[in-house]
């Protein structure tokens, strides 16, 4: 079994749901559920990275390792790189970035990303995608699409419908019979520590600014992103009060 670590970036500030990691879901703070998913994936080490003492204290009381990080980081990736440096992880160690608002993430997805990365040597980062079943999702800018090469490495990520099927769109949204499935990107990443160090030295790219997709920085700087295809898109995380109620109902039934 592939050895890997999980880091869960968790910030207190949230425009729509302030204090989101600490919100109660089925009798536990949301961050506790996320940590449980990481442990169920058989991660050898689970660390919460935060810049807030309230989150630090709550997670520490759960018996989960917690690291205070710089509040000025621009992304969770930078926060994870700081954790790796502080804890002295080696360049070849595999780290999965698990968002702190994903209490329903299947543990198998966490393992899939880590194991996909471990099976090859060309990319320092792996992520997930699943086939789009609903044609309307192809045109939804909140659903990020990805196109792969023949070896499973990303050619491009976009909020636009890619690839553009010239004969079918935009007059018809029926994807039946198309010989190339449309893939939705799932924002779960596994990295090597060595990749994280390189990433933090790169400047933002024009592509990521236009699409508002941080992963395009990697392609812009000439590195590969391995994409592991999984059976289905995981249930959405928590961004709104409605999401909170949905997830709470789901976990109360579990």
TrEMBL record:
Q: Where can this protein be found?
A: Cytoplasm; Membrane
Quote the pathway field.
Answer: Nucleotide-sugar biosynthesis; CMP-3-deoxy-D-manno-octulosonate biosynthesis; CMP-3-deoxy-D-manno-octulosonate from 3-deoxy-D-manno-octulosonate and CTP: step 1/1
**Could you say which enzyme class this protein belongs to?**
transferase
Any one Gene Ontology cellular component term annotated for this protein:
cytosol
Q: Which UniProt keywords apply?
A: Cytoplasm, Lipopolysaccharide biosynthesis, Nucleotidyltransferase, Transferase
Known catalytic reactions: 3-deoxy-alpha-D-manno-oct-2-ulosonate + CTP = CMP-3-deoxy-beta-D-manno-octulosonate + diphosphate
Annotated GO biological processes are: CMP-keto-3-deoxy-D-manno-octulosonic acid biosynthetic process; lipopolysaccharide biosynthetic process
Q: Which GO molecular-function terms appear in the entry? A: 3-deoxy-manno-octulosonate cytidylyltransferase activity
**Protein family membership:** Belongs to the KdsB family.
Its biological purpose is as follows: Activates KDO (a required 8-carbon sugar) for incorporation into bacterial lipopolysaccharide in Gram-negative bacteria.
Q: Which HAMAP family match?
A: KdsB
> What is the name listed in the Swiss-Prot or TrEMBL entry for this protein?
3-deoxy-manno-octulosonate cytidylyltransferase
- Species of origin reads Methylomonas koyamae
Taxonomy of origin reads:
Bacteria, Pseudomonadati, Pseudomonadota, Gammaproteobacteria, Methylococcales
State which gene encodes it. Answer: kdsB
């Amino acid at each position: 079994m592939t050895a890997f670590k999980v880091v869960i970036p968790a910030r207190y500030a949230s425009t729509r749901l302030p204090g989101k990691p600490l919100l109660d879901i089925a009798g536990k703070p949301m961050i506790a559920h996320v940590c449980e998913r990481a442990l169920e994936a058989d991660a050898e080490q689970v660390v919460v990275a935060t810049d807030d003492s309230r989150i630090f204290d709550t997670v520490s009381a759960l018996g989960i390792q917690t690291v205070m990080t710089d509040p000025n980081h621009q992304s969770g990736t930078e926060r994870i790189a700081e954790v790796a440096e502080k804890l002295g992880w080696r360049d070849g160690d595999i780290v999965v970035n698990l968002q702190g608002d994903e209490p329903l993430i299947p543990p198998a997805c966490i393992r899939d990303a880590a194991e996909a990365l471990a099976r090859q040597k060309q990319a320092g980062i792996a992520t997930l995608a699943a086939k789009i079943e609903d044609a309307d999702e192809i045109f939804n800018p909140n659903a990020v699409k990805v196109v792969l090469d023949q070896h499973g490495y990303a050619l491009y990520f976009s909020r636009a419908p890619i690839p553009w099927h010239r004969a079918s769109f935009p007059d018809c949204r029926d994807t039946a019979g198309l010989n190339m499935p449309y893939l939705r990107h799932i924002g779960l990443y596994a990295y090597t520590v060595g990749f994280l160090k390189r990433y933090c030295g790169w400047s933002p790219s024009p592509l990521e600014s236009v699409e508002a997709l941080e992963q395009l920085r990697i392609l812009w700087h000439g590195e590969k992103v391995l994409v592991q295809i999984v059976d289905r898109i995981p249930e959405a995380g928590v961004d709104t009060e409605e999401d909170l109620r949905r997830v709470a109902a789901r976990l109360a039934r579990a």
